[in-house]
Amino acid sequence: MLASRLNQLRNQLLAAPVNSNTPATLLLDTIIFLLQPELPWVCKIVGYFLERNAYALIRDITLTGKESADSHSKSSLASLEHLLSLLSSHVGKKPCCCPRVDPNWSFSSQILTLPLLWRTFTFHTST
């Protein structure tokens, strides 16, 4: 029972944006919307993630996505990949007012520890 629920969640997380009726995809798309660089509250949201160690959760989701990427088309990773690109590139960009981040615990440091990240999420090869 638990294994089938985990597989269902994994499939939702890796659903293509066209299939945005799943709760997990809606959550990812909402976070993506809130993290748009031109919005005035983006640093507050990134700071909230830092305070709550949400990066560890997103890193776990990314690992789950990477493990099952072979069974999904490359286009189905778009929402998760977009979220990763927004988070990993945010801190330090002008006019960033995020709290000081320990480089060992920043999202960029956490995400870069994932093996074979660039083969799974091709957007990172172009940034």
Descriptive overview:
The chain has helices at 2-13, 23-34, 42-52, 54-67, 78-90, 107-111, 117-120. The longest helix has 14 residues, at 54-67. It is built from seven helices and no strands. By secondary structure, the protein is mainly α. The chain has one domain. Residues 72-76 have low confidence and may be disordered. α2 (23-34) packs parallel to α5.
Secondary-structure element series: HHHHHHH
Report the count of strand segments.
Answer: 0
Give the rounded overall mean pLDDT: 67
**What Rg is obtained from the alpha carbons, in whole angstroms?**
15 Å
Any low-confidence stretches, pLDDT <50, length ≥5? Answer: 72-76
Structural class: mainly alpha
Q: Can you give the helix content as a percent range?
A: 55-70%
**Sheet with the most strands?**
none
Taken as a percent bin, the fraction of beta residues is under 5%
User: In DSSP terms, counting alpha (H) and pi (I) runs of 4 or more, how many helices?
Assistant: 7
Whole-number tally of structural domains: 1
Identify the overall geometry.
Answer: globular
- The N- to C-terminal Cα distance equals 40 Å
Short structural description:
The protein is an all-alpha fold and 127 residues long. Helix content is 56%, strand content 0%. It has one domain (2-125).
